[in-house]
Design a protein that fits this description.
Length: about 200
């Protein structure tokens, strides 16, 4: 019984996500056709009637009307308000602002949403090194090792580095590159000569 409830919840959540993304899917589907994209691009500059669009795009009148019908069905364009009861070739069309607003809201909801970490390593990196940048040094030994192991992957084996080259690499990870460099040496990820002039990965 609990398994079935879990499946139902998962299905419901997937359906909710699909519904929320519908404005983005409709927009993407509508604009996959290059002719429809050109029409929408022209209407982004302001309203235009079919005759003007035909002249500007070079699309045949028949195809233009077909594309306008499709764009209307997707909610991308509409007849300019107040819409005439019997539109003709001189009735202006405009972009449907409501559709683009809904798409922006859907994008804002899902933009930057990341997959939840599933193990301690991923959680450590998500917490202390989001986007590959070290935001703080962890206190737990296990977390420090995860960070150092990840940072050490930036270095090539059997290659010698000057201290300046090491600093440049680490500066791309944290402003406190001196502390990070010391950690790498203290924990045995990097070795250096007695005068500290050359480093190499262990």
């Amino acid at each position: 019984m609990p398994d079935n409830e879990g499946k139902e919840n998962s299905t419901t959540q997937a359906d909710d996500n699909s519904d929320a993304l519908q404005p983005l899917m409709a927009l993407a589907t509508a604009l996959l056709d290059t002719d429809r994209l050109r029409i929408a691009g022209l209407l982004a500059s302001g309203p235009a009637n079919p005759m003007q669009l035909e002249q500007a795009t070079g699309i045949s009148h028949r195809d233009l009307l077909r594309h306008l019908d499709s764009l209307q069905n997707f909610g991308i364009v509409k007849l300019q308000d107040p819409a005439p009861r019997d539109p003709d070739h001189y009735s202006p069309y405009e972009l449907n602002a409501a559709t683009f607003k809904a798409a922006r809201q859907a994008m804002g909801k899902y933009k930057g949403v990341r997959k939840r970490p599933t193990d301690s390593r991923e959680l450590t990196l998500e917490t202390f090194m989001p986007d590959g940048k070290l935001t703080a040094f962890p206190l737990k030994q296990s977390q420090i090792l995860v960070i150092l192991d990840t940072v050490a992957a930036r270095f090539e084996s059997e290659k010698q580095y000057t201290e300046r080259e090491v600093n440049v690499i680490l500066a791309g990870i944290t402003d406190d590159f001196a502390t990070l460099r010391r950690y790498l040496v203290d924990y045995g990820y990097l070795s250096r000569t007695s005068d500290g002039s050359v480093y190499h990965k262990n």
